[in-house]
Backbone:
C-alpha cells in the first residue's frame, strides 16, 4: 500500500527526471531537510495553521532564494505547505531518493569494514554487488573496528555479512548448542 | 376357645357371687334369730309358745327370708354379673397386656441376641475396612513417594542440563573472546585482504 509520502515523492521524482535534474533535486531537497533539522522552529512555522499561507510562501521563497535552489523545489514546497504536508517532508525525501534510484536503476549499498578499503577492493566489491543486484551500485563506506576483519554489506533489505565478528558469534552459538 | 373359656369363667364368677350373697343372708338370719326370740319373749310368751304361734313364727320368718332372697336375686345378680364381667374384662385385658409384654420381651431378647451378632459383624467389617484403608493409604503413600522421586529426578536432570548449558555457554564465550583477541593480535593487512577477498569470492559465487 502506497503511503501519502510516496505519492508526493513519485510526483517529484517524475518531474525531476523529466527535467533531467534528478541529482540537483536530490541535493536541494537534502539541503532543505538539513535546514529544517537545524532549526526546528522553521518546521513549526511552515506547519502551523496560525500562520497565513502567504507568509509561509514568503518564507519558503526566501529560503529557496538563499539556497539558490530551483523553482521546482520552490513549487514543491508551496504544494506541501498548501496541503499541510510539511511534517511529512523527511518521509517524502526518503521515498523520493528510493524512487529516483529505482527509476535510474541505482542500488545503494552500505559497506562496513574493519579497515579502510583501497580503490581496487572497492571496485571489486562494487562490481560484484552490481552483478548481484542487477543495478548500478552507489556504495557508502563506513569503518567499524568491532568487525575485527571482513565486511558487512547491506543492499536494500539484504545483508551480506562476511565479518570475523559474525563468524565468531556463529561459532559461539554452535559451541553452546553442542 | 378363648371366647368359651371367658364365658365359662364369667358364669363361674356369677355363681360364686350369688352363693356368697345367700351365705351372707343366712348368716344374718342365724345371728338375728336369738334376738328376735328374745324380743318376742317378753310380751307374747304365751301365744308364741303354742304350736300355731310357732307355725306363724316360722311363716313370718320364711316370708322375710323369701323377700330378702328375692331382692337379693332380683337386684344383686345383675350387679354381680356386671361386676364379674368387669373383672373378666380386666382379667382379659391383663392377659392381653401380659401377652404383649411377653411378646415384647421375646422381641427384646431376640434383638439383644441379634445385637451381639450385629456388633460382631460391625467389628469384622471395621477390621476389613481398616485393613483396606491401611492398604489404600500405603498405596497412596507409595505413589506419592514415587511422584516426589520422579519430580526430584526431573528437577535434578533439569538442573544438570541447565548447569551444563551454562558451562557450555561460558566456555563458548571465553573461547570466542580468546579467539577474537588472538585474531586481533595476529591480524595484519595481508590477512585482512585475504579475508576480504574470500568474502568477495563468496559474493561472486552467489552471483554466478
Residues:
Amino acid at each position: 500500500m502506497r503511503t501519502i509520502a510516496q505519492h508526493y515523492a513519485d510526483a517529484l521524482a517524475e518531474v525531476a527526471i523529466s527535467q533531467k535534474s534528478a541529482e540537483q533535486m536530490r541535493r536541494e531537497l537534502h539541503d532543505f531537510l538539513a535546514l529544517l533539522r537545524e532549526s526546528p522552529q522553521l518546521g513549526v512555522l511552515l506547519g502551523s495553521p496560525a500562520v497565513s499561507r502567504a507568509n509561509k510562501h514568503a518564507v519558503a521563497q526566501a529560503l529557496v532564494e538563499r539556497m539558490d535552489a530551483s523553482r521546482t523545489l520552490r513549487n514543491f514546497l508551496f504544494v506541501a505547505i498548501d496541503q499541510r504536508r510539511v511534517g511529512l517532508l523527511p518521509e517524502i525525501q526518503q521515498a523520493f531518493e528510493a524512487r529516483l534510484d529505482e527509476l535510474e536503476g541505482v542500488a545503494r549499498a552500505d559497506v562496513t569494514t574493519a579497515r579502510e578499503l583501497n580503490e581496487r577492493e572497492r571496485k571489486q566489491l562494487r562490481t560484484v554487488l552490481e552483478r548481484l543486484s542487477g543495478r548500478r551500485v552507489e556504495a557508502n563506506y563506513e569503518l567499524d573496528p568491532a568487525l575485527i576483519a571482513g565486511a558487512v554489506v547491506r543492499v536494500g533489505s539484504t545483508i551480506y555479512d562476511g565479518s570475523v565478528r559474525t563468524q565468531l558469534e556463529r561459532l559461539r552459538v554452535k559451541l553452546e548448542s553442542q | 376357645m378363648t371366647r368359651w373359656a371367658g364365658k365359662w369363667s364369667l358364669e363361674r364368677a356369677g355363681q360364686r357371687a350369688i352363693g356368697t350373697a345367700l351365705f351372707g343372708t343366712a348368716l344374718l338370719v342365724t345371728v338375728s334369730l336369738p334376738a328376735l326370740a328374745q324380743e318376742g319373749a317378753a310380751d307374747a310368751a304365751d301365744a308364741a309358745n303354742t304350736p300355731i304361734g310357732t307355725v306363724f313364727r316360722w311363716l313370718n320368718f320364711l316370708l322375710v327370708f323369701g323377700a330378702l332372697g328375692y331382692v337379693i336375686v332380683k337386684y344383686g345378680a345383675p350387679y354381680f354379673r356386671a361386676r364379674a364381667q368387669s373383672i373378666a374384662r380386666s382379667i382379659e385385658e391383663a392377659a392381653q397386656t401380659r401377652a404383649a409384654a411377653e411378646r415384647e420381651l421375646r422381641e427384646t431378647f431376640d434383638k439383644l441376641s441379634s445385637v451381639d451378632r450385629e456388633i460382631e459383624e460391625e467389628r469384622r467389617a471395621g477390621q476389613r475396612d481398616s485393613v483396606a484403608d491401611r492398604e489404600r493409604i500405603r498405596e497412596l503413600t507409595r505413589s506419592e513417594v514415587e511422584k516426589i522421586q520422579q519430580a526430584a529426578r526431573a528437577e535434578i536432570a533439569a538442573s544438570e542440563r541447565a548447569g551444563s548449558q551454562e558451562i557450555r555457554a561460558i566456555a563458548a564465550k571465553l573461547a570466542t573472546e580468546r579467539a577474537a583477541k588472538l585474531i586481533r593480535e595476529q591480524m595484519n593487512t595481508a590477512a585482512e585482504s585475504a579475508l576480504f577477498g574470500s568474502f568477495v569470492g563468496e559474493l561472486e559465487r552467489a552471483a554466478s
